[in-house]
Amino acid sequence: MAVKDKALGIIFPNMHDEAIPELTRIRTMASVPFGGRYRMIDFTLSGFVAAGIDDICVVPRTSYVSLMDHVGSGKEWDLARKNGGLKIFPPYGEAGTKAKYGKQGALEAIVEYIEDAACKYVVLADCGIVSAIDYADVLEKHEESGADITVVYKKELLDKTAKTDNVVLDVRNGKVCEILINDVTDKVRNCGMWVYVINKDLLVKTIHECEAKGLSEFERDVLQAGVGTLEIRGYEYTGYSRRITNLKSFYEANLDLINKESLAGLFKEYPIYTKVRDDAPVRYTIGSKVTNTVAGDGCFIEGNVEGSVLFRGVKVGKGATVKNCVLMQDTVIEDGAVVENVICDKKVVVTAGQKLMGTSTHPVYVEKNAKV
Amino acid sequence: MKECVAMLLAGGQGSRLYALTQSMAKPAVYFGGKYRIIDFPLSNCVNSGIDTVGVLTQYQPLELNEYLGNGQPWDLDRLYGGVHVLPPYQKATGSDWYKGTANAIYQNIKFIERYDPEYVLILSGDHIYKMDYAKMLQQHKEKEADITIAVLDVPKEEASRFGIMTCDEEGRIVKFAEKPKNPDSTLASMGIYIFTWEKLKKYLIEDENNPESENDFGKNIITSMLADKQRLYAYNFEGYWKDVGTIDSLWESNMDLLDPNVPFDVWDKEWKIYSRTLNSPPQYISDKAVVENSMISEGCEVEGTIDFSVLFQNVVVEEGAIVKDSIIMPNTVIKKGACIEYAIIGEGCTIEEGAHIGERPEAVEDSANWGIAVIGNNLSVCKGAKVGAKAMIYNDVKEEK
């Protein structure tokens, strides 16, 4: 059976928007820029494509303009297809009713599509973690084990200041025996990666049941409630990943890419696709000095850059200094300006001679289109 | 119908690029860190509002066919129009290779007529430039010309290398001379023509029926039209234009991108150059790297020294390696301590530790023996090997036994 007949992928772009409200004010978590040229959703979409899952539903709730713009028809991921391909479902909050948050609301909105899909399994994924999960292997292990649900997890130390919900698992011989939500301690534990494989028929059944009972949280009302009655298995992921739980972890996850091992961990498993922008290669002029940096195409660097992640189309003027920064698309650091420990959203301009300093624990965030 | 259809002559072998065109036609040769030569005329078409392009291939078409695909990267995947690769084909009454540039168009009259165009733009896939063909077409219409030829004012001493146009005050061409010894003008043909289709068709058919003809645009079609007192006009182009038909000109043209005094800007967002790109992660410049005055593309990993060089996608330069005044094509690895100077390294090469390729001009006593060193595609150069200036390498360089 071809994988596409086997599994349907569903992506929830708005889950974890609360982790970085600065960045998600104007966009979904899925469309948060990451790693010099990507958006968070690219890692999930590319992982699905690499596994042969090419029937994919993206179900946003709000602020999805940037997401629509980014994924378009899905052609950059080879998902502009006659059969299957990428489908973005319009927001599911109906007028006059209180929109249901969480996955249940999204699933209710597309339940008919899921019912009609020819697949046996459904892969559910959020966009709050960058990883190189081998979804084909997850599916294979799920099928072999005969489980009802497989939860992908990683041994991690959770951040106590995290603003996102966490799922902690007690796994014995691959079987999930207990699920705790938001139980943060200072120990390394099995932390759910918000990726689930679930048998389609079971998923459809739970969607209807939760709807009838007015239940809204997949993790609590299906997973946690299902321990003991359902066969829930754990799949341990041991590869590279970074969990985005707040602005600081977003900043650190970006800067963590400035190292060969991280780049290999994230990009060597399978190609990560993103929207093509047709930028020229990066130009380093006479007098520029760049070390320890990761950059997307289209950057034009005349100044000094150290320990930073530059997204596509960033300009660094003569005599400007950029240190330990994350500068998103088309940001301009004008001549002589100094930025240190700063996150600039898209199209920020730091005018000539300005100084902007954060600290490594508290980076400064500058909003989209701002002129400093 | 389409107002204007472009026909791009991409059959050129590019024999003077030697090792670089062993397995691909000249228009497919890499240029400028992430492009191929053909991206320039194709992007110019799209940016000028021309969405129907026939690409005439002949020599080593595989790479080019694959590269163009359905034309999506150039936004040329259209329901009506778009990009079409047109190789010579078997006909009921026999088959022919394209005998000359005019014959190539002649053999595709049916293709052009499908779009019933008023004008046909003839382009070549050998040049690096940015040009708004819409402006040229505008002038063609205003002058009610039969053919408009784009010309560039070249230095007098170089004029004898080109097809030279002599014009009257109105810009009407009164004389055309192919590579004249004593040019009486400095207006060189850029090989870019707009024809009124009806006229071109007539002359193509006549030319085909003339057994004496070489079926060449410059030598035959233009000369006949001039003799018949047709309306030939020059369109003055100002800006960067370079024929990249030789190793030296290919190297120079790449280096021009690094020269702030050369008015050629691929970073211009108003006139993007589109290309089919590999999907590569962002480039990584390590803490040990030294990078100055260079162009580096996505997917590169740089831990060595890069100066005055152009690195295409996914090039790896290991610690202690030096790349100066050179062009490194995609997926090539330069190992530790290797040194590349004044060289062009083809795609997919491995330059082993300590190898030295190319020489600086001042290091060679007789300047006649100096030139850019070239390593062909998918070759390896062994540890500690030395490849001198002007070398042209077609095979792996192995250790001597």
- What is the helix fraction of residues of chain A, given as a range? 10-25%
Q: Oligomer, anyone? A: heterodimer
**Inertia-based shape of chain A:** globular
Distance from first to last alpha carbon of chain B: 66 Å
User: Approximately what portion of the residues of chain B adopt beta-strand conformation?
Assistant: 25-35%
Mind telling me the C-alpha Rg of chain B? 22 Å
Task: Briefly note the structural class of the backbone of chain A.
Answer: alpha/beta
Kindly estimate the percentage of residues of chain A that lie in beta strands according to DSSP: 25-35%
Shape of chain B: globular
What is the distance, rounded to the nearest whole angstrom, between the alpha carbons of the first and last residues of chain A? 56 Å
- Average residue pLDDT of chain B: 94
Q: Number of DSSP helices of chain B?
A: 8
Question: What report would you give on this structure?
Answer:
The complex is a heterodimer of chains A (372) and B (401). With 372 residues, chain A is α/β, with parallel strands linked by helices. Chain A contains 11 helices and 28 strands. In chain A, strands 1, 4, 5, 6, 8, 9, 10, 11 and 12 form a 9-stranded mixed sheet that branches. Chain A has a 5-stranded parallel sheet with strand order 14-17-20-23-26, with no helix packed on it. In chain A, strands 15-18-21-24-27 form a 5-stranded parallel sheet, with no helix packed on it. In chain A, strand 9 and strand 10 (175-181) form a beta hairpin. Chain B has 401 residues and is of the alpha/beta class. Chain B is built from 8 helices and 33 strands. In chain B, strand 2 (30-31) and strand 3 form a beta hairpin. Chain B is globular, with a radius of gyration of 22 Å. The N and C termini of chain B lie far apart (66 Å). The interface between A and B is large, with 39 and 37 residues.
